[in-house]
Design goal:
The chain has about 375 residues and is α+β, with helices and mostly antiparallel strands. It contains seven helices and 16 strands. It is globular and about 60 Å long.
């Protein structure tokens, strides 16, 4: 018995040494971040807000389709990264951008790199989602960074006044949705009146309610507006909401998406307000199955309402000598694709590439000098 106990202790010690030795820590990779700066802003006609909010993105263009897409030129990238800004009073502007410090040849080589082949899987099976109950969890990081968007989607706090979500939550590719006219963001908070202590676990979420804050302005890239979910527009399914007042909660920073091979155990994590579990925050994690330059394809169980959730990972930040969670993508939704005459389901997240990082970071900070470290 003693030799067996000694062997177990030795194995545990070795395992611990491997896990905590710096060589074995999954590190945030250094990224070359270009500069995306506004050049010209012009007024547009006020939108009519005629579109119905859709909580799922549908597209016949799967991974192979996106990999076959031509590498965009410098001018095309400037067009796609130009953006519209919707203000709370209904006015609308368009801003053209310039891109600096971008190596187009290197970008082409990176985008032409093939992703991993996707394994066949069963779409419906064991539900791997976890409902988060109780204010001790809901009001603590990282779950406290998830917020409800009034159009029915989820968003993630990425700064003191800013929420990252999916573009299709506010714009259908052609028009702004009806709910975008008076867009609000909901924060879970405890009800003032506590219920009886013998309440069952399934009703614990009823002790929470949403406190709503109006959105001051909304940024949507032209890559989404000019395109649509059936074309390259899906690569730009993200939007940034600026609140009228600070939320005073801890937020999660954005980061450039590592490759799937660099992710800890190949996994991603996100939490959202899935429609089939109304009022509950639902957390899940899963492995990335395939990737393109702009998209992550994965097996995470999700329902409409989770769209816009911030996809994050936890890795070691060498400069700060600490573990950091960062948002590396935005959950877009389910994607039905025809493959060999058969429908197939994908769950898709939009990756935060160096260019998207530069753009979103500038929207948040208004200063490109603070946006060079992805």
């Amino acid at each position: 018995m003693a030799p067996l106990l000694t062997l177990l202790m030795l194995l545990c010690a070795v395992r611990g040494a491997l896990l905590y030795h710096p060589i074995w820590k999954p590190m945030w990779p250094a990224s070359k971040v270009p500069v995306v700066l506004p050049q010209l802003t012009e007024d547009l006609d006020a939108p009519e807000f005629t579109a119905e909010a859709k909580l799922e993105v549908t597209s016949p263009c799967g991974p192979e389709c996106h990999k076959r897409a031509l590498v965009p030129s410098y001018e095309e990238l400037k067009e796609r990264l130009s953006y519209e800004t919707l203000y709370f009073n209904g006015s609308l502007t368009q801003t053209n951008v310039g891109i600096y410090g971008l190596n187009v040849a290197e970008l082409a080589r990176t985008q032409e790199t093939k992703g991993r082949s996707r394994a066949k899987r069963q779409i419906y099976g064991y539900d791997s989602r976890f409902s988060i109950f109780g204010k001790d969890f809901l009001l603590n990081y990282p779950f406290s960074t998830s917020v409800k968007v009034s159009t029915g989607c989820t968003g993630t706090l990425v700064a003191e006044r800013h929420v990252l979500t999916a573009a299709h939550c506010v714009h259908d590719g052609k028009s702004y949705v009806k709910g975008a006219k008076k867009l609000k963001v909901g924060f879970l908070k405890p009800r003032q009146k506590e219920e009886s202590s013998n309440q069952t676990r399934s009703h614990l979420s009823e002790k929470m309610k949403f406190q709503w804050i109006r959105v001051k302005r909304t940024h949507v890239p032209k890559g989404w507006i000019k395109g649509n979910a059936n074309d390259i527009g899906m690569d730009y399914d993200y939007a940034l909401l600026e609140l009228k007042k600070p939320h005073k909660r801890r937020y999660m920073k954005i980061g450039v998406s590592p490759t799937a091979k660099q992710l800890p155990a190949g996994r991603i994590h996100f939490s959202g307000y899935d429609n089939d579990r109304w009022g509950n925050l639902v957390y899940r994690f899963c492995k990335v199955q395939e990737e393109t330059y702009d998209l992550l394809y994965q097996q995470c169980d999700a329902q409409p309402g989770a769209s816009g959730s911030g996809v994050y990972v936890r890795m070691w930040k060498r400069e700060h000598r600490r573990w950091e969670r960062r948002i590396i993508g935005i959950f877009s939704g389910h994607q039905w694709v025809e493959r060999d005459g058969m429908p197939q389901d994908f769950n898709v997240a939009v990756r935060i590439t160096p260019l998207k990082y530069a753009q979103i970071c500038y929207w948040i900070k208004g200063n490109y000098a603070d946006c060079r470290d992805g």
